[in-house]
Amino acid sequence: MTILKRIALALLIVLIFTAMIVFTAGNPGELNLKLLHWEITAPISLAFTSAFAIGWLFGVVCMGLYAFKLANERRLLRRNLRMTENEVSSLRSLPLDDAD
Q1: How far, in Å, CA of 79 to CA of 65, rounded?
Q2: What residues contact residue 45 under an 8 Å CB cut-off, 6+ apart?
Q3: What does the pLDDT read at residue 100?
Q4: What is the CA radius of gyration of the chain?
Q5: In the chain, where are the structural domains located?
Q6: How far apart are alpha carbons 45 and 51 in whole angstroms?
Q7: Which tens digit of pLDDT belongs to each residue from 5-23?
Q8: Are the beta carbons of 21 and 9 closer than 8 angstroms?
Q9: Which parts of 1-100 fold into alpha helices (H)?
Q10: What count of other Cβ atoms lies within 10 Å of the Cβ of residue 45?
Q11: Is the pTM of this model over 0.70?
Q12: What is the distance between the alpha carbons of residues 22 and 33, in angstroms, rounded to a whole number?
C-alpha cells in the first residue's frame, strides 16, 4: 500500500509541475501589485504561484492550530475521565450501611 501512495504522490507532483509550466508559458505578461505603500511588478505566473503558496501555508497553519486545540481538548477529557473513574471506584469500595 505504501508503494501505491508513493506512486500517487509522485504523479501528483509531476502533474503540479506540468500545470505550472503550462500556466507559465500561457501567461507571459507582468502584473503590477499595489500593496499599501509598495508597488511590485511581477510576472503573472509568479504572482499566482505566490498567492497559491501563501494560501496553502495559511491553511496548514490553521489546520495545525486546530489539531493542537483538539489534542489539548483530548488531553483534558482523558484527565477528567481518569478522575471520574477513580471517584467511581472509590464510591464502590464504600460499605453499604443504609442498605435496609
Answers
A1: 21
A2: 20, 23, 24, 27
A3: 54
A4: 28
A5: 2-92
A6: 10
A7: 999 999 999 998 898 888 8
A8: no
A9: 2-26, 44-92
A10: 19
A11: no
A12: 23
